Each structure stands twice: as C-alpha cells, then as structure tokens.
Amino acid sequence: MSFRVTARSAELFSGLVAPRVEAGAESSGSEWMRFLRDRVREKHIGANQVSTVYVPDPHGTVNAVVAVSVDSPADVDAGDVFVSIPTGVFAVFMPSGSLADPIEDVWAQVDDCVASGAIFRAYKEEVEVVTKSGEVELFISIVL
Known about the structure:
globular; 144 residues; 8 strands; 3 helices; alpha+beta; 40% strand; single chain; eight-stranded antiparallel sheet
C-alpha cells in the first residue's frame, strides 16, 4: 500500500449520475458503473479518461457522477449534470498489482490505509479516474 499526497486544483465535470452509491470497489466495478462509463465515452469520443466523482450529500449518502472534465458550465451537454470539485488535498492511489482488478486494488489500498491510520478521510468529493487503456488513479480527500 503506497500513496502520494497532492493538492488538486478546482475542476468542473459533466456527466451522468448514479444516485445513492457506496464509494468503493463494489459499486465502481459494477455493471451499472461500467455501463455509465461506456455511455460517457460514447458521448465524448475524444476523451482519454472518464472520471467518477463521488459527491456526499447532506443526508449522508453519496452520489456518483460519471463524467469528463469540462472548462465551463457552457460545455455541459443537454441532459448531463455538472459538479464542481473545489481545490483540496488528496491521497492518490494507483494499482499496486496485488489484485487482478485495478479498481478493486486501489479501493483495497484505501481501506487498508484508513484502517491503519495512515490517512484520515475528509469524506468530501473524491475522484476515480479510468483511462481508455484501463489505467486507474484514485484521489481520496484527506484531512492533514
């Protein structure tokens, strides 16, 4: 389990919503999320990566926005939603190779780091990035 800590600038995303999900490998690797990633890729053919932005709401649930990065709200397609991620500090996880599924790998590393006290999650917006070639990078909001 290894990660790096980084500051991430504010970013705007446009895409499709999966309401009331649990952020983690089970939901991220589900057929539903794969379907949404495929639909976003079809809409944004030139996009190299699709991100899943996990957004907590005031009721204690998390909504996922499967999306691409855009420059402004004017770039949001009809029927899509957009979410703005504020500047923040994140622990960044990449697959270690210990598990065959790279998405499962990064989320398992997060669980291990939280359990060991290596990181303290802020439970704010978190971003999972999956490239066309299947590379995964997971940004977990943390408290310093």
